[in-house]
Amino acid sequence: MKKKTHNKYDMGVIGNCAFMAYVDTKASIRWLCWPRFDSSFIFGDLLDDEKGGEFSVKPTAKIKKTNQYYVENTNILVTEIYTEDGDFKVTDFAPRFEQDDRYYKPLMMVRKIEPLQGTPSIKVVCNPVGNYGEMIPQKSQGSNHIRYEGFDQQMRLTTNIPLSYVMEENSFVLGGAVYMVLTYGAPLEAAIENTAEQFYTRTKRYWRNWVKSTSISFFHQEKLIRSSLILKIHQYEDTGAIIASGTTSLPEYHKSTRNWDYRYCWMRDTYYTLNAFNNIGHFEEVEAYFKYIENVTKQEEDRYQPLYTITAQKEITEIEMPLKGYLGENKPVRIGNDAYTHIQNDVYGQVLTSLLPLYADKRFTNKYRMHTKKLVEHTLQKIADTMEEKDAGLWEFRDRPGHYCYTFLFHWAGASAAYKMAQYFEDVKMADKALKIKERAAEMIEKCYDEETGVYMQAAGAKDMDASCLQLITMNYLDPNSERARRHLAGMEKELMAKDGLFYRYKHVDDFGAPETTFLICAYWYIEALACVGRVKEAIDYFEKVSSYANHVGLLSEDVDSKDGSQWGNFPQTYSHVGLMNAAYRISKKLDLPNFL
Predict the structure, then answer these.
(1) Cis peptide before 115 (omega within 30 of 0)
(2) What phi and psi, each to the nearest 5 degrees, are found at residue 152?
(3) What SUPFAM superfamilies does its record include (predicted)?
(4) Among candidates 275, 273, 351, which has minimal Cα distance to 306?
(5) Which of 214, 353, 452, 516 is deepest in the core (most CB within 10 A)?
(6) Inter-residue contact 234 to 316 (CB < 8 Å)
(7) For residues 48 and 403, what is the distance between their CA atoms, to the nearest angstrom?
(8) Contact indicator for 151, 184 with CB cutoff of 8 Å
(9) Does residue 35 have a cis bond before it (omega within 30 degrees)?
């Protein structure tokens, strides 16, 4: 029997749509990959405290307490450290702002350390590594910077801290504000203090303006703003791809070996992610994602993969790395993800439902509709071609092919979207084909219905329930006001719900055993379903309970242990934050009250 381990991710995340860095409550950088989201870490203490390098700011006196928070409505993170000798704070951010009609988003991390009271003494350590800890760079001292040689491009730490203190890792008294700017590629040549302060001001202004342009209701605005900001920095702006998470191999529960690399773009997330950005009125991100999807699908003459790299590459070979793993005990550490070889046929419906706004939403102009008719026709045909084919399902079962209800639901939704697009094209033949495919998909969904329980099961002929089938209600396959929807929801609650509205994906044994943790987005699907069937008060109650499983700065994990509230899985998980955003939107539409009530 595995020993239970309570786990909470005590980290905040900063980013600028080119990279992300994870900062813990003691101001250490636990995870940072350069030059891309899916590159090797240069700081990876999260997975190996020996090979992971270090970028820390440590007091010499004993720490009494810490406090970490985001600067309001930004992705700028502040960590306050209170010690027996004095207190100080570290402000971390990744510069991002408009400059010369484009966004300035360098591979640059800025750290400002300033005393709060007393005379704190600190030690700064900056030891990056390459090739997942296998390469130790050569350090050399410049006039006002330290060079780290051995990377593909030059890496520098520019600072106004005496370089000897950093090189020799000696402590010093923090008499005033000091700055550290770590760069990959183009170094910082300008005056460090003025530049860092100017970048801080411009970055803060950028994020606050971005939040101001976000269209959200008054329902739990603070949670929505944080989720929106986190979702935003998971988009790799260069290509428009949005990754599932910035980490790899954080286990679904302790010693589960369910350790996956999530630094890629999953097609299964497309519908939910675009929905979330649409709901908050951010079309710049939507347009960039459309372009990424078009680039991915245009290269595919046959089937679409479940996931691609952030540069739309197809091969994502999964290998195991010689690292200790999370908490020093969670092996294997995986780089790459073999799920790219899986058959997941819901991807075709995901693509079609995601393309629909280009035609149905008048805020998009004709230029976004060009060249996509062939893509729509090809994707619709793929639904027809794969209707009878077994696949790996949403949860990527590695040895359990089946006729999954979730796959047929997206066949049904994708064909519905194709029918609407056919009307835009004034293509009667395509419209007729889409309707026939939609009818066939509905027939396949009904094969998953269990008369005895009144529940749609995970797959045709199966007796296992699956939380993804909650979406039969939220996507309006089932009339939310119908007795069938009520029975279906009641059956799923009885079988899969844990405390506080948390939900298991499923409870059956898979290729890694029986799941031990709940999957957070399933809880938000449940909350949406409650709102759909008119149980709005319960939806609000569960929304507040489920959202309380965020960490101290409002970030959500992939999985939650319902017994002790532990956070597990890769972190933060965009799927979970998208779930929160879409559930909040659904509830706020149901409330529809004046803001003074």
Answers:
(1) no
(2) -65, -35
(3) Six-hairpin glycosidases (SSF48208)
(4) 351
(5) 353
(6) no
(7) 40
(8) yes
(9) yes
Which amino acid is it at 238?
Answer: D
Whole-number Å distance between alpha carbons of 4 and 16: 36
Distance between alpha carbon 105 and the CA centroid of its chain, in Å? Answer: 19
Beta-bridge partners for 235: 242
pLDDT of residue 431: 97
At which residue do the structure tokens 């130790």 appear?
136
- Residue 371 backbone class (left: φ over 0; alpha: ψ -120 to 50; beta: rest): left
346-355 vs 373-386: helix crossing angle, rounded to 10: 150
Question: Is 401 exposed, middle or buried, given 0-12, 13-18 or 19+ CB atoms closer than 10 A?
Answer: middle
Around Cβ 123, how many Cβ atoms within 10 Å? 16
**Which residue has 């044994």 as its token pair?**
509
Contact 207, 76 (CB under 8 A): yes
Closest CA to 405 of 455, 339, 334: 455
Q: Is the dihedral of CA 529, 532, 535, 536 positive or negative?
A: positive
Q: Give the span between the Cα atoms of 307 and 297, in whole angstroms.
A: 11
- For the chain, the helix, strand and coil percentages under 3-state DSSP, each to the nearest 5: 35, 20, 40
Do residues 449 and 477 touch, judged by C-beta distance below 8 A? no
Query: β-strand 54-59 against 41-43: which pairing, if any?
Result: unpaired
Question: What pLDDT score does 511 carry?
Answer: 66
**Nearest one of 284, 288, 256, 253 to 270, comparing CA atoms:** 288
Looking at residue 113, its amino acid is I
Supply the pLDDT for residue 1: 40
Rounded CA separation 371/379 (Å): 14
> What is the value of pTM for the model shown?
0.95
Per-residue DSSP letter, 548: T
The Cα 299–Cα 416 span in angstroms is: 24
**CA-based torsion, 579, 284, 352, 339: positive or negative:** negative
Contact between residue 272 and residue 575 where contact means Cβ atoms under 8 Å apart: yes
SS3 of 103, please?
strand
**Which residues, including other chains, have CB under 8 Å from residue 152's CB and lie 6 or more apart?**
35
* Contact in structure between 180 and 138 (CB atoms under 8 Å): no
d(CA 595, CA 424): 37
Six-digit token pair at 94? 């990744």
If 0-12 CB within 10 Å is exposed, 13-18 middle and 19+ buried, where does residue 300 land?
middle
Contact status, residue 53 vs residue 43, Cβ threshold 8 Å: yes
pLDDT in tens, 58-71: 999 999 999 999 99
Backbone angles phi, psi at 173, to 5 degrees: -80, 130
Q: Is the dihedral of CA 153, 159, 164, 169 positive or negative?
A: negative
pLDDT at 400: 82
Q: What is the pLDDT of residue 104?
A: 95
Which residue is listed with tokens 């001001």? 201
Please report, as a single letter, which amino acid is at residue 182: L
| Per-residue model confidence as pLDDT tens digits over 503-549 | 999 998 776 667 889 999 999 999 999 999 999 999 999 999 999 99
- Please tell me the distance from the alpha carbon of residue 46 to that of residue 36, in angstroms, as a whole number: 18
**What per-residue confidence (pLDDT) applies to 374?**
85
> Can you tell me the distance from the alpha carbon of 505 to that of 515, in angstroms, rounded to the nearest whole number?
8
The Cα–Cα gap between 165 and 181 comes to 16
SS3 label, residue 413:
helix
Count other C-beta atoms under 10 Å from residue 217's C-beta: 17
- What gap in Å lies between CA 352 and CA 350, rounded to an integer? 6
Q: Which residues of the chain have pLDDT under 50?
A: 1-2
